């Protein structure tokens, strides 16, 4: 039996869909308050849903009975300052529970991390799996939680756990909703006028899930893989999104001081609205950084051919215009 944590999320749901189509019945955990994603409702007879929060070790242990493979996708994501410490604790504690149980029960684990947990390269160089984030107060809570969660997996590996880690870049897909990469599309659609000078990697959600399955079913272990299709500048990506919407492309450069003002304004507004800020300090600073990722390790290991990012952008914009 295969189990997925976080199957109600964007990536987890796509992974569950692909696995059901390939192997049939699977098991997925969710919180009792979580709704089943629309893309998984057609497979109701193939998915066994179990209410088990990753911080509840006893519920997880019950859910893992008879399981041979675990895809750990569950994680709390928030930009709220008030959520920083509880999010870090939740993600680390939850991953520690998954790692401990998989180690004890001899279950193979594929852990979903993020490029947020990968360090930076020297100017002009590509970021590889050999780079590691240095934990500082300047890092956002999510990045720290993913870094420390990875450390839990490496601890498990040292104790005999059979595991592999993936670090996806920004994930695109028509089912992203209004969060994550979906927020970028909505922002451009509403008439974004500015672009930033940075760059980062992008990848389709279908490709991330497909690569996870390939790695899980390989004999590879004790390694991490950057999962990213293409490196794009923010000017290029926002311009292409605007072009697909048939609207004017962002034409003004948002300089670092403007981004500094934006995150401070966002925090001020968030304090009154109690909603997540539209941009946080780290995101604002990162928007002007050039973060280009090397995917050659994954390509060599799997031979996978990524979907062009332009195709992903087109699919998202078509869905949003229905």
Automatic annotation (TrEMBL):
<feature type="domain" description="NAD-dependent epimerase/dehydratase">
    <location>
        <begin position="2"/>
        <end position="218"/>
    </location>
</feature>
<dbReference type="Pfam" id="PF01370">
    <property type="entry name" value="Epimerase"/>
</dbReference>
<dbReference type="InterPro" id="IPR001509">
    <property type="entry name" value="Epimerase_deHydtase"/>
</dbReference>
<dbReference type="GO" id="GO:0005737">
    <property type="term" value="C:cytoplasm"/>
</dbReference>
<protein>
    <submittedName>
        <fullName>Nucleoside-diphosphate-sugar epimerase</fullName>
    </submittedName>
</protein>
<dbReference type="InterPro" id="IPR051783">
    <property type="entry name" value="NAD(P)-dependent_oxidoreduct"/>
</dbReference>
<dbReference type="InterPro" id="IPR036291">
    <property type="entry name" value="NAD(P)-bd_dom_sf"/>
</dbReference>
<dbReference type="GO" id="GO:0004029">
    <property type="term" value="F:aldehyde dehydrogenase (NAD+) activity"/>
</dbReference>
């Amino acid at each position: 039996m295969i189990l997925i944590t976080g199957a109600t999320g964007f990536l987890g749901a796509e992974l569950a869909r692909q696995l059901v189509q390939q192997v049939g019945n699977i098991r997925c955990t969710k919180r009792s308050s979580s709704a089943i994603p629309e893309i998984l409702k057609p497979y109701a007879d193939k998915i066994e849903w179990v209410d088990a929060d990753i911080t509840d070790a006893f519920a997880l242990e019950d859910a893992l009975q008879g399981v041979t493979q675990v895809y750990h996708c569950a994680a709390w994501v928030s930009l709220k300052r008030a959520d920083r410490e509880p999010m870090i604790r939740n993600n680390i504690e939850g991953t520690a529970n998954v790692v401990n149980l998989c180690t004890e029960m001899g279950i193979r684990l594929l852990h979903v991390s993020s490029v947020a947990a990968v360090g930076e390269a020297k100017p002009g160089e590509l970021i590889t799996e050999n780079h590691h984030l240095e934990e500082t107060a300047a890092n956002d809570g999510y990045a720290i939680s993913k870094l420390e969660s990875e450390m839990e997996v490496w601890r498990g590996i040292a104790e005999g756990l059979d595991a592999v880690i993936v670090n996806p870049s920004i994930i695109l897909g028509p089912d992203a909703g209004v969060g994550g990469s979906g927020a970028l599309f909505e922002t451009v659609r509403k008439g974004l006028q500015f672009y930033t000078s940075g760059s980062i990697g992008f990848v389709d959600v279908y490709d991330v899930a497909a690569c996870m399955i390939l790695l899980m079913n390989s004999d590879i272990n004790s390694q991490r893989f950057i999962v990213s299709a293409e490196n794009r500048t923010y000017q290029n990506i926002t311009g292409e999104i605007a072009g697909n919407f048939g609207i004017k492309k962002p034409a003004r450069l948002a300089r670092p001081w403007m981004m500094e003002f934006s995150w401070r304004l966002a925090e001020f507004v968030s304090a009154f609205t109690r909603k997540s800020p539209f941009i946080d300090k780290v995101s604002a600073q990162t928007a002007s950084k050039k973060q280009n990722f090397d995917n050659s390790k994954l390509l060599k290991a799997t031979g996978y051919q990524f979907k062009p990012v332009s195709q992903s952008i087109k699919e998202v914009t078509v869905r949003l215009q229905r």
